[in-house]
Write a structure and sequence with these properties.
By secondary structure, the protein is α+β, with helices and mostly antiparallel strands. It has helices at about 30-45, 50-55, 55-60, 65-70, 85-95, 95-105, 145-160; strands at about 70-75, 80-85, 115-120.
């Protein structure tokens, strides 16, 4: 009840009328209109500059820096690099030059500070040594004829080649 103790009259409300659905438009639309709702949540979590830095790190940093440090995170203008302790000390002295080079490669001032975290360096990526090929052993002669025999012969060769 209101403070003055009197009952107030209820004003009649307008009846609720369902709105008509907007007619669907099947005309061609620009790709930006379609991609924006999809990419907006991803870009809220990770800035486009961060995605570019992480994806193009070897090209942006150069071969020497890319071999010694790896980008871990980019947030608030701070790029976090993972490297060994001695490398971090060395890179800290050349941080202004590194920041300038990365910003020049990005085309705008995105990186303001570098932060270093100590990580075990990744081993160089080399192809694993393959074992020497084994001598060819023919499959047993008592296999059934036809497709089943051919499949069993391939299975036999596969097992023998693994060793």
């Amino acid at each position: 009840m209101p403070e003055d103790g009197k009952k107030r009259k209820r004003t009649p409300r307008a009846p609720i009328v369902p709105e008509e659905a907007a007619p669907r438009n099947f005309a061609p639309r620009g790709i930006a209109a379609i991609l924006a709702p999809v990419t907006r949540p991803a870009f809220r979590r990770r800035a486009p500059a961060a995605a570019q830095i992480l994806a193009d790190w070897p090209q942006l940093a150069g071969p020497e820096l890319a071999a010694r440090a790896a980008p871990l995170k980019f947030a608030g203008g701070t790029l976090t690099l993972g490297c060994t302790g001695p490398t971090a000390m060395e890179l800290q002295f050349s941080a202004p030059q590194i920041i300038a080079r990365l910003n020049l490669a990005l085309g705008h001032t995105a990186i303001e500070r570098l932060r270093f975290e100590q990580h075990v360096p990744r081993p160089p990526t080399t192809a694993p040594a393959r074992p020497a090929p084994r001598s060819f052993e023919p499959p047993p002669q008592d296999l059934p004829p036809g497709e089943l025999g051919a499949a069993l012969a391939r299975l036999y060769q596969g097992i023998k080649s693994r060793g």
